Amino acid sequence: MRLAIYITFLLLTALPPTGLPAQQLAAASDTECPWPDPDSVQISWTAPCEEGTWLLDTEVGCRMWDWHPDPGDKAVWSGACIHGQLEGYGVLQWYEHGQPIDRFEGTYLHNRREGFGRYRWNDHDRYEGLYAADVSQGTGTAVIDGETFRGNWQRGCFVKDGRVVAIGTPRSSCDAVGLSAPDRRRHGTPSF
Predict the structure, then answer these.
(1) Residues contacting residue 121 through CB under 8 Å, at least 6 positions apart
(2) What gap in Å lies between CA 57 and CA 94, rounded to an integer?
(3) What distance in Å separates the CA atoms of residue 138 and residue 155, rounded to the nearest whole number?
(4) Signal peptide position in this chain (predicted)?
(5) What are residue 91's DSSP bridge partners?
(6) Last residue of a domain, one of 90, 120, 150
(7) I want to staple 130 with a disulfide (CB 3.0 to 4.6 A). Which of 53, 112, 135, 138 is the partner?
(8) Chain CA centroid to CA 172, Å
(9) How far apart are CA 131 and CA 137, in angstroms?
(10) Cα dihedral 179, 182, 187, 189 sign
């Protein structure tokens, strides 16, 4: 807790009193957590409205973020661990109450998904494609509740038939990349 307060203090004192970084910080602190739009799909493991904690894989000494911590949860990483961070190719398997749940197979760079990867949330929902900065970016395919979303993803966002899909990012962040704006066709509608 003291570390989080200290880091917050450093961020607040290091940022200029005016300008874009301060505005972004203020906007982030005022974030409300509305219900997702009925025409959207959101799978989020880093949304600012959800609490989480760090898990430590004691076998290899790597730490990773867990968005829904529980004392019975654990994660196992099969790849390299450099300075406590996931690095390179491997498989990350999460367990909840001893049962396997989410699984990612692919490449990490400094604890963030980067390059090609496969993420499976349960027996039916999955994403396979490119990642950048820990979110879907570039060519990829998601299958969610039996529906396929295939094409070009931007910062974890995708649009199909007017429905916005967000994976690993809050649904509201899709507005920033122009995917959920009414004039999204000017920005390039993903092809299917």
Answers:
(1) 43, 101, 102
(2) 10
(3) 9
(4) 1-22
(5) 105
(6) 120
(7) 138
(8) 13
(9) 5
(10) positive
Whole-prediction pTM: 0.64
**Strand (E) or helix (H) holding 24:** helix 20-29
- Residue 154 belongs to domain spanning: 129-180
Same domain for 99 and 64: yes
Per-residue pLDDT of the chain (192 residues; tens, 9 = 90+): 333 333 333 333 333 333 333 333 233 333 344 444 444 454 544 444 445 556 555 566 677 766 556 667 778 889 988 888 889 999 999 888 888 989 999 999 998 999 999 999 988 899 999 999 999 999 999 999 999 999 999 999 998 788 889 998 888 888 866 665 443 333 333 332
Cα separation, 120 vs 124, in Å, equals 8
Count CB-CB contacts under 10 A for residue 167: 23
- Beta strands (DSSP E) in the chain are 40-43, 53-57, 62-66, 74-77, 80-82, 85-96, 99-109, 112-120, 126-132, 135-144, 147-153, 157-160, 163-167
Buried residues in 43-64 as b, exposed as e (16+ CB within 10 A)? bbbebeeeeeeebebeeeebbb
φ, ψ of residue 21 in degrees (nearest 5): -60, -40
- Name the domain count of the chain: 2
Compute the C-alpha angle 102/131/108, nearest 5°. 70
